[in-house]
Amino acid sequence: MRSATQRLRESGSDTPRLDAELLLGHVLGIDRASLLAHPEAPVGQGQLEAFAAALERRAAGEPVAYIRGLKEFFSLALAVDQRALIPRPETERVVELALERLSEMLTAAPRPELAPPLRAWDVGTGSGAVAVALAVEARRRGYGRDVRVLATDASPEALALALENAVAHGVADVVEFATADLLELPAAGRADLVLANLPYIPSADVPGLPVAASFEPVGALDGGPDGLVHIRRLLGGLSSVLVPGGSCLLEIGDKQADAVVAAAESLLPGWHHAVYADLAGLPRVVEVRPPSQPG
Questions:
Q1: What beta strand segments (E) does the chain contain?
Q2: Residue 228 and residue 200: Cα distance in Å, rounded?
Q3: C-alpha angle 233-129-57 in degrees, rounded to nearest 5
Q4: pLDDT number for residue 295
Q5: ∠ CA(229), CA(247), CA(201), 5° rounding?
Q6: Is residue 81 helix, strand or coil?
Q7: Cα 293 from chain centroid?
Q8: pLDDT digits (tens, 9 = 90+) for 171-218
Q9: How far apart are CA 9 and CA 186, in angstroms?
Q10: C-alpha closest to that of 134 among 101, 90, 86, 182
């Protein structure tokens, strides 16, 4: 562990000790807690070789999540690989707000016994992190029958990964997957909730991202000249998709709140909007709602 930490520190890792612990735990098939509790545990030759190979991949800049093949998100272990962006902790804020809105919608007024489920549309689902976490948590809270999730992405490869995660967490029956470019899905119908973590990095900034980002699909990062090309397109089509009383939650870059709000005011005049911070206190989610919903 000491030598691995030093190797990764020299390679430029910002978190060399954590990276080494996660990779060694992965090779040994144990979690970090067990690893730290038993520092004297032997490591077999085959495991040592596997660990060395994993270290070289990390030293070359490959993200730990891709090497392990999983990433924790909203207390779920999600499969990840280069078909989709690695889920970020700040995206959990989108899930938290989505659950709040679903709860409000379900309790605002008595629902008829045969009322159709509320519909949440995760646009640009990638690994399926938001869609799967939302479905799992809705079921845990007891209103799984009242919520259905549509998860779409322009990448069939990313959708295949998202489906794998839905199956692994037992929610493939409540999450529907479809290939679509943003909201352009024929016969998609309307949604009570639209969620989107779209590419929002300005094109000129992509080459300067940490080397780990170079292993991720560039299409999941590059948001055009100012980072807002996809967000504006989504806002432009929102009025034909979102039901009265619905809500759209958009993850944004931490310096984009004013620009996104301005775009919403221009494209959706009279709509309400709000900005929510992540755990670091940075503006992370913009919510837009139709004017029929009280502000």
A1: 70-73, 76-79, 118-123, 147-153, 175-179, 191-196, 242-251, 272-277, 283-289
A2: 6
A3: 105
A4: 40
A5: 25
A6: coil
A7: 27
A8: 999 999 999 999 998 877 899 999 999 999 999 999 999 999 999 999
A9: 50
A10: 101
